[in-house]
Amino acid sequence: MAEQRVIVVGGGLAGLAASVRIAEAGVPVDLFSMCPVKRSHSVCAQGGINACNEVARQQGYSEYQHFDETIYGGDYLADQAPVLEMANWAPRIIDLLDRMGVPFNRTNEGRRDLRLFGGSLFKRTHFAGATTGQQLLYALDEQTRRHEDDGKITKYEWWEFLWPVLEGEGSDARCVGIVAQDMRTMQIRAFRGAAVVMATGGNGLIFGQSTNSVICTGGAASRCYQAGAWYGNAEMIQVHPTAIPGADKCRLMSESARGEGGRVWVPRKAGDARTPKSIPDAERWYFLEERYPKYGNLVPRDIATREIFDVCVNEKMGVGGGNMVYLDLTHKDPDYLTRKLGGIMDIYEKFAGDDPRFTPMKIFPAVHYTMGGMWTTYAPGSYTPATPHGEHKPGMVPPVDTEVGRGMAYGDPRNMSTNIPGLYAFGEVNFAYHGATRLGANALLSCIFDGLFCGVGVVNHVNDAGIKPVEDVPQSVYDAVVRQEEAKCERLIASAGTGDGPAHNAYIIGKEMGEVMTSASTVVKTEKGLENCLGKLDELRNRYANVSLSDTATWTNQALSYARAVGDMLVLAEAIAKAGLLRKESRGSHYRTDYQDRDDENFWRASVSRFNPQTGKADVSFEEVKAGLVEPRARTYGKQANEDKSENKQEVAASAS
Amino acid sequence: MTTATATPPPTAGKAMRTVHFRIKRCDGPGKPSRWESFNVPIPANSNVISCLQWIAANPTTADGKATTPVVWESSCLEEVCGACTMVINGKVRQSCSCLIDEYAPNDGDTVTLEPMSKFPVIRDLWVDRTRMFAALKRVKAWVPIDGTYSLGAGPMEGPRASETRYKLSECMTCGCCMEACPQYHLQADPAGWETSFIGAAPISQARLFNDHGTGKQLKSERLEALMGPGGINDCGNAQNCVQVCPKEIPLTESIGAIGRAATVEAFRRFFMAK
User: Fold this and answer.
1) A360: containing domain
2) Disulfide: which of A117, A366, B9, B91 matches A250 by Cβ 3.0-4.6 Å?
3) pLDDT tens-digit profile of A52-99?
4) Which residues, numbered 92 to 151 in chain B, qualify as contacts with chain A under a Cβ-Cβ cut-off of 8 Å?
5) What ipTM is given for this predicted complex?
6) Does the beta-carbon distance from A251 to B78 stay under 8 Å?
7) What is the DSSP letter of B76?
């Protein structure tokens, strides 16, 4: 048998962790990325990475509690066993990153420092300043470079993934490689791979301005979906409560700002024009602390976002009457802030012009994370309780230990495989782990966990002698996909000058898609809003059919790449809006004013979108969540009942639709 | 339908001002450069990226001629990825953090954009910094761990040491220090990379890994790479690097530290006859 190679698409944390793990096992890796991997979007993660640790353990915390928090935080929509395995692995992952040289913040004794984060009452978040994602990505980038130097990893940077190559039809299809394009020479070619790992991140660009990097279009996931990969929980999009609005993007203000004591407030008097520092404490409304006395400013993101939205949009109490609230750290010691949060202090100062050590920041929610994604499966581990466990309280003995393989079977090739054998999805691009809301500082964990844990399954898939080697796949299978993609490019190039100005301008279509998706399919959703949104997407798709390119260059044509991505984003946007329309309940980040309660009887199910090539749209079904470990309970985070407020809310909700 | 986008407090209506962009363009390697101008309307919170995005959607020059969208490289837009580095009004920096209200506060002001000059142009403002990543290989900028198995924690480290390493580890391989350095020269041919001055960033990365408990195992090899041609001795001490570093990394301190370590290493080798 000739040498078997694995293709990894995407060079963020998930892709790099997978590459290193697979290369280390002796299987050579071809790593594809639209940018030098060191510039991947993981670099933007700020706050930290969660793991049980000795201090928290002695206070009654455990890996199992971390698992329970994650399931509760995600409002029970995640398959449960993979989350257990991830939480159990978290301390091992921190140790590994430590060995790789990540400069975690340290205590006086030289131990790793910890901070509070949303959704937990324990300090279980490890961090490197306020640029933890950058530091983790660099550590993996360095290990990748080491393997590249040894010849085990070959990088294809500035190559764009265009389509998966499948052999066979329907349920017999398997993935045998990819077709990609060199973004400089525009050459399109096929690559054979015994397995393909998609690690291409989220789809924030579908919503126009988000906290995501400009490369996070969701285009790669959409192409796999159109080729037959299922897409799960498309409607679950996280809107981060605290971002700095900008003309080009919204910049994240990390949850760690609240973890380190940041308080969210607005003046008690609507439209109060005084400077924030001159407003006395009694005249400030700390609405999160008032409404959630237990968790205060550290409620999970979807809740903080909805409360900020409610205060600004519904109650018109935003700063100066606009859509803004204060995030205030000015009561903390400036040196402490520099040491713990320097990275984000600098970002705010650079982009907003004020020093947040001395002036409260002005922030508003922005689209941040894609909980939904490519549907993936797994092989269950050894922990299968006869009845699901109830609420796990601090100090209780966990019902299961942390041995490897309790949640998922270690090394099983099914782990994080899509419905297409040979095609895997790791990290943000899959739908596993985070359910209907991701807890802060769990993203870095899930990405690295996928790479390390599930990478072993990929190696075992590749070494399975029972699978027909990819070198035996006829070249014609690859050539056909190359031709398909060349034809797309030729059609786009030929479109130059044919369209009707703005109506067929890809940038304008993309902008309008972002506006309608943000407005109808993020913080507050309604049936009418989502139906209008689907109508608008139809209009945009019709206009896109005659999209007209502004650049016909055959060298480094970014306009072509963007226009092609807009088409794929429109396809995925339809699935996101449609799944949101069909999920007639509220759960986690998905909040319907017309169905305000969680409906476990009908919707404790994952939405699964299958692309219908006849209609070009999603066929959405609702399928069982693989639970069995934890019994669902009401997700309230101890919210204080307030009769007046809830009445008010319903009224406003009606007018908002 | 309510939109969920952020809005600033309402202010009195003011006509949007225009800023004039002069952009140095080039269709590809070996092609001649030319200048094109664009008049860009400036809404609140504009930066160079949002202006380039506007030009991409409206590719018409100031004198009304249809042209192609300007090509540039960008990713995070938060000044942590390093991608969008270019020369703006003669100074190298990231374009995402270049706010128009600061750089061009008045109606009709001009902003000039050029690609970095020390790296080969791919197209327009997009340059190829592969040489910087190759330099990281040259100085073995990694910790030689025993694989990704569960082997417990890394070496203990005091908060001061970790803060020092964190500062060095913020380097995003953007190339500002190379662009500003009089000793660093354009080398389109990879054959010239090994002997031409390596620049401040990789020297500082060598220090970062030499300072790590496990990373120091490769200290001697890193120093060897920096003691030869194109290494530490090629630094002319102009100190431009430290002034342009967007992360304020103490690059000259790193160059000094590596210089001293190289001297010690040279003595060690002399006396150990190695």
Assistant:
1) 241-365
2) A366
3) 999 999 999 999 999 999 999 999 999 999 999 999 999 999 999 999
4) 96-97, 99, 122-123, 126, 129, 133, 136-137, 140-145, 147-148, 150-151
5) 0.96
6) yes
7) -
